[in-house]
Amino acid sequence: MKRRTTWLFFLLIILGIGIILSPFWLWQLKETKELNVLIMDKTVPDKTYREHNGLVYILNNQKYVKANQDKYYSQSDYKGFKPTDDNKYKISELPDDLSNYDVLYLTDQYGVYEEEFYGSNSLGERSDKLYGGLETEDVDKIENALFQSDNKTLIAEFNTFASPTSDEAREKITTLLNVSWSGWIGRNFSDLNGDEVPVWVRDNYKEQSGKEWSFTGSGIVLINKDDYIVVLNNEDLTDTGVEFTTTNKGSSVLNKELKSQYDYWFDIIEANDQEGVLAQYTLPVSKAGKEKLKGYNIPSTFPAIVQNANGQYTSYYFAGDYADEAEVPSLYQTVGFDTWKKYITYRKSFYWNTYVPIMKSLLKDGLHKPAVKESNVETVKFGQMDTNSRTNDEFIQIKKNGKWEDLVIKGVNMGISKPGAFPGETSITKDEYYRWFKDIGAMHANTIRVYTLHPPGFYQALYEYNQSTKEPLYLIHGSWVNEDVLTEKQDAYSKEVTADAKEEIKNMIDIIHGNADLPERTGHASGKYEYDVSPYVLGFMLGTEWDPDVVNYTDDKHKGAKSYEGTYFKTEKASPFEIWLAKLMDYSADYEAKQYKWQHTMSFTNWVTTDMLDHPAEPSKDEDKAVVDPNHIKRTDKFHAGLFAAYHVYPYYPDFLNYEKSYSTYKNKQGEQSNYAAYLNQLRKMHNMPVVVAEFGVPASRGKTHENVNGMNQGFISETEQGEIDKSLFQMILDEKYAGGLVFTWQDEWFKRTWNTMDYDNPNRRPFWSNIQTNEQHFGLLSFDPGKYEPTTYIDGSTEDWNKLNVSPLYTADKEENPIQDVSVTSDEQQLSFKINYKDPVNLETDHTYLLLDTIADQGQKSTALEGKEKVNTDFGVDFAVKIGEKNDSHILIDSYYDSYYFHYGHLLNMIKKESYVSKKNNGVYHPIRLALNKELEIQGETIPFNSYETGELLYGNGNPTSKDFNSLTDISVSEDKKTIELRIPWALLNIKDPSQKEIIADLWKKGMEGSQTIEGIHMAIVMEKDKKVVQTLPEMGSDNKIHLENTKQFTWDNWEEPAYHERLKESYYILQEAFSKVGN
């Protein structure tokens, strides 16, 4: 019995020891797993390796080994900054070939600075950079690795793309991660008066506010790209710390729900795909804190982890410094140690509570798993010929699961320009194209149409996008015909026109098959084209909107031309111009068949002006004198791909669309009278093939050019109205049995002109600023808003954005009782912006504010009438008088002598009533600012008078896109307490031809419409009127009851050659996204 008790005792001891040692022997029993991880860490100022040591611990603890079966070492298994002995260091660059790695992990790329490396820098002072910031070359290597194989996972964390990373590298890496950076970073501090708050934060705050840093207690510090500081302290917060929580998707992906407090540096980002948000941060803000954040356009909840899982690779972005852990144990050969740390000793440790379980889950189940790739397009062979599409009587068809299916075209047109460049400069980057394709795909579009050859990056981006997605984006590729040569020769058959057209077709076909190397040529795309996108090319669309004079001249010169019988296309009852088109189409099909054994569905561009219908209500002979009929071109039995017609159809032009009597009784399928639907119905009946509306849409611009009888105007349309109208147009296109439609257009195009503003600006400088008076520039669903990463100012009644810009008042009242306390002015690529602060709430019915602007010297009005009998006299000429009054009585007036509209249509063209006073300076008369809409028309014996509208009227509203009350047409906004008014004035309303160079229209009566001059700035005076009596002027009047020029303030701004802008999806994008989601899925 005693022996048995002894043995039992020893067994219990052995068992106890075994249990105690179980974390160690259980770890030894675990199998190793090969996982090749590349770590890139540029922030290693010392040999603690803290920015990646926490990651290495997890890899070793989970028994992941390198290809040589060895463990990971913090001091050697990373690329980046490597400290050596005696205050020296070396740089280990990212290798060119990353194909051997499974995971690419970017920890902190901030870098190493002199004070951190050579000194202690305990105060957090800034110093010169030794090394740091993600480089473009780094991202290129990463991108190549991700797309050259389909077995890789990219993980990145803060600071990957904030300062000091370059703009180009930032754009590339955020595109790969599918996130957008707001330009803001932040950190929670347990003590705002403690040593952890860096000196540079305190110094920047003092510099921007003029106040000493006196914050105490816990708080959150937010910093933007320009080092502007926002502090959330006790009165702004309801709790301490930043809350981290997983989303439902995140809990599913990570196999656990996580909630913790995060207290270190973070990015404020936006996920381009909300489905990819796995976790989010919530700032514990009070009502006051929310209002403060709102003023800076900062959300209180934003993504913490974003997953981008696609067919090609998977990425994760951690918007925080997660792997940074100071106290990582050297002993990693244990099981359950992290759990013990989590529950026993480190209850508040984000590293142990959150980061470790996240990484364990991702390394086990979240890495990219290459699937057996199935092509997302199906091709069909006809003999030796490949094709991916065909047509029936109504639709273009594609093969799906071995069966031909109708494809409803729902897509966008895409131009070749962006701000700061003309189209011929082909300046759009591959990363921009790729980002845009993702947004277009997310809109549920299935097709992109381009008009001409794009740079190689377009085709690479399209190829890579389609490799990564289940549903492809198809391409309808245009082949441009040189309009200048065509117009000059007037004959489509001229050798120059035909040779150029064929060369363009040949290049297009070689390019889409990834087999072209085009030399540099001014105004054209060039470079090496290596990506074969032919399976994604739905069809070719040759040509442009045909000049009716060219069509008629060609038909007359070649009258009697024989019908064409080509290998792939032939004509029946065709005109000479149609025969010429058929020959180009045949040339295209023949070249592609011989070179690549491919056929693509074919079409050519057409528009209402050259349709086959008679339009008796069309007042312009040019708009109804020529016909290009696609029905006269047939395919032969050898052409197995499809043939379809394509038209550009807008609701407001040509004019007959408003005046055709038979259209006035037509109702669309929603039971609403619609001239647009009536025309679509009439046109569709004339075709025996599918018809695509290749362009449709309305612009979200301030300026207006044409009006539509049903309110679908060309301009003065808000973004929301744009979306609703485009949605309605698309529905009518489908209802009238069309094969689909392509909205015009994807991105805004600053280089564009339109007929009623083109004489008032500098055509050589258009791409450098946003002219919201020119509607043609603002058809896009993607806006380019002024300001890098984030807006300059929004006209929304809020003042925080002005604080952020650190704008000092232009005028400040010298008496506390003055009704106007101060006036601030700033400017950007789009407008002048004003902020007026009042002592008391403004009553717009009785309190009126006037801005008197002197832009051009030696002219202007020297007496300005206000309400009632009041006048304000000046010793300088006022060129523009701005009234801020009631909501239906606020506008900008122009000195009649300087009125470009009157000079153009009254003096030069004699289209409006002439006034004798206008040619005299200081004539006492202001004019409203107007834009022409239509010249006098003769329609079936009826005279429609010249038409214009007042574009100087100012609209009240909220111009902040994040507001539920957002109206993009807003000119004036009043704060909630009615003590602040914000105003915008578009540059063009001030006769400014090019704000980037301060170029204005000169003295019209001396130098004409073409005359221009540059200025130093704009002199400004402000007048406050209360109950029809002047109560204040800034500056004060002199003893002669005049405002003197020498006392006025002049606002000036810096010239620019590179416009600062950031991308923003308009409200119309989201409306069309919903509409497209319901069609063809």
Describe the structure.
- With 1081 residues, the protein is α+β, with helices and mostly antiparallel strands.
- The protein folds into three domains: 21-366, no CATH class; 395-783, Glycosidases (TIM Barrel, Alpha-Beta Barrel), CATH 3.20.20; 793-1059, no CATH class.
- The protein is 24% helix and 26% strand.
- The protein is built from 24 helices and 61 strands.
- The protein has a ten-stranded mixed beta sheet, with helices on both faces. An eight-stranded parallel β-barrel has the order 24-25-26-29-31-33-34-37. Strands 42, 45, 46, 47, 57, 58 and 60 form a seven-stranded antiparallel beta sheet that branches.
Distance between the termini: 80 Å
Q: Mean pLDDT, rounded to whole units?
A: 94
Number of strands: 61
Task: Indicate the structural class.
Answer: alpha+beta
Helix content percent band: 10-25%
Strand content: 25-35%
CATH topology of the largest domain: TIM Barrel
Largest sheet: 10 strands, mixed
**Structural domain count:** 3
- The CATH architecture category of the largest domain equals Alpha-Beta Barrel
Choose one word for the global shape. Answer: flat
Q: Which CATH first-tier class of the largest domain would you pick? A: Alpha Beta
List segments where confidence is low: pLDDT < 50 over at least 5 consecutive residues. none
Order of strands across the biggest sheet? 5-4-2-6-9-18-17-16-13-14
Count of helix runs: 24
Task: Name the CATH superfamily classification of the largest domain.
Answer: Glycosidases
Gyration radius, in Å:
33 Å
What's a quick, concise take on this entry?
Keywords: Membrane, Transmembrane, Transmembrane helix. The protein has 1081 residues and is an alpha+beta fold.
